[in-house]
């Protein structure tokens, strides 16, 4: 279907002589250029307007088109059907050369499924034999909810702008409260066309930005408070492994409430110093014994032992048989303690009174 527009009376009054022609039609994609060698050709497709008859991918007679949007791109797969807008802008002058361009929109939703919308390519019956792409039977479309804005990738990635709907959504909250869900990977079901929901515990990795929703999140280890009862704004990032990596500056964790870490092993490594500022530091839930200022205690104890060795030496010199052996033994052990006292101090752990 072709449309033609010429200059209006107002345009002609001010000297405009441009004439615009555009054509809109369905086309089947033959190939998509994803090479970056020639930036002018990247994302360009070859297409045919003949959707039914067999075609050859090697033919050079096909037309080409570029993405309609410069910001959003979804390169179509060979065999998918797209809407092509072919434009032509030319001057009213007889010698002018028309400026022609063709642009394509995203693939048509032929199969009502996010993975692909392919039709047989040429003489091939199997539409999945496309280079660098394999159709998967474990990718499913997401269940829609009223008011949703959904973006679904071909391999189980999704971004959902949604709300709370009691007894329907996987999260609980008052009707109409906003939520955003960025998810990668899906739960596996038997039917690839079955509509599924995001699963905060089973999806490969997901990010939830909530308002008042409670999420059925299961913690990876024991915590002091449950994760599935909080109903205030929160950001939840969950996956098999979570890495926060600050390459050039600080990693800052700040909270007016508790900062909690739970794991089978908790390792903290620092190149310089680990500093903890708190009115009280407990090692263990039932910790009730106070730490000792080691340097002061050892210095005072050494001083006491030095004085005691003088006393035992004096007692030993009296020649009283029952005191001679114990005095010598005490003096030996006390001397050894005094000589080794510096080795008893930790070079890593320091405490403040």
List keywords for this structure.
353 residues, alpha+beta, 3 domains, five-stranded mixed barrel, five-stranded antiparallel β-sheet, 3 helices, 11 strands, 14% helix, 21% strand, elongated
Q: How many domains would you count in the coordinates?
A: 3
> Average pLDDT value?
84
Query: Can you write the helix and strand succession as a string?
Result: EHEEEEEEEEEEHH
Separation of termini?
A: 86 Å
Report the helical percentage: 10-25%
Task: Name the assembly state.
Answer: single chain
The rough form would be described as elongated
Helical stretch count?
3
What Rg, in angstroms, do the CA atoms define?
38 Å
Strand order of the largest sheet: 2-3-4-6-5
Structural class: alpha+beta
Q: Number of DSSP strands?
A: 11
Sequence stretches where pLDDT stays below 50 over 5 or more residues:
8-16
Main beta-sheet annotation: 5 strands, mixed, barrel
Write structural notes for this entry.
This protein is an alpha+beta fold. The chain has three domains: 103 residues, no CATH class; 126 residues, no CATH class; 76 residues. Helix content is 14%, strand content 21%. The protein is built from three helices and eleven strands; from the N terminus they run E-H-E-E-E-E-E-E-E-E-E-E-H-H. The strands form two sheets. Strands 2-3-4-6-5 form a five-stranded mixed barrel. It has a five-stranded antiparallel sheet with strand order 7-8-9-10-11, with no helix packed on it. Strand 7 and strand 8 form a beta hairpin. Helix 2 runs antiparallel to helix 3. The protein starts with a strand and ends in a 13-residue tail after the last helix. 13% of the residues are buried. About 3% of the residues have low confidence.
């Amino acid at each position: 279907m072709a449309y033609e527009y010429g200059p209006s009376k107002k345009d002609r009054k001010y000297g405009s002589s441009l004439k615009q022609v555009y054509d809109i039609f369905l086309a089947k994609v033959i190939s998509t250029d994803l090479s970056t060698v020639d930036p002018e050709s990247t994302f360009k497709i070859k297409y045919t307007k003949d959707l039914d008859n067999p075609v050859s991918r090697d033919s050079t007679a096909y037309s080409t088109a570029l993405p309609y949007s410069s910001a959003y791109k979804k390169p179509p797969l060979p065999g998918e059907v797209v809407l092509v807008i072919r434009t032509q802008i030319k001057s009213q002058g007889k010698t002018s050369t028309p400026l022609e361009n063709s642009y394509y929109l995203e693939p048509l939703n032929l199969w009502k499924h996010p993975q692909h919308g392919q039709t047989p390519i040429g003489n091939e019956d199997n539409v999945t034999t496309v280079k660098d792409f394999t159709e998967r039977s474990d990718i499913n479309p997401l269940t829609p909810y009223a008011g949703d804005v959904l973006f679904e990738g071909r391999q189980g990635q999704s971004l959902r702008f949604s709300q709370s709907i009691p007894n329907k959504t996987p999260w609980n909250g008052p009707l109409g409260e906003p939520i955003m869900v960025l998810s990668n990977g899906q739960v596996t079901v038997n039917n690839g066309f079955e509509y599924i929901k995001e699963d905060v515990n089973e999806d490969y990795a997901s990010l939830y930005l909530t308002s008042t929703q409670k999420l059925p999140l299961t913690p990876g280890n024991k915590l002091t408070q449950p994760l599935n009862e909080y109903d205030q704004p929160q950001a939840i990032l969950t996956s098999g492994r979570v890495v926060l990596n600050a390459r050039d500056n600080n990693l800052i964790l700040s909270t007016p409430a508790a900062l909690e870490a739970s794991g089978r092993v908790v390792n903290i490594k620092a190149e310089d110093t680990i500093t903890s500022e708190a009115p009280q530091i407990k090692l263990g839930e039932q910790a009730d014994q106070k730490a000792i200022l080691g340097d002061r205690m050892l210095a005072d104890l050494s001083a006491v032992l030095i004085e005691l060795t003088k006393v035992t030496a004096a007692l030993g010199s009296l020649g009283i048989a029952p005191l001679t052996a114990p005095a010598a033994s005490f003096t030996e052990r006390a001397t050894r303690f005094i000589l080794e006292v510096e080795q008893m101090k930790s070079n890593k752990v320091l405490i403040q009174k």
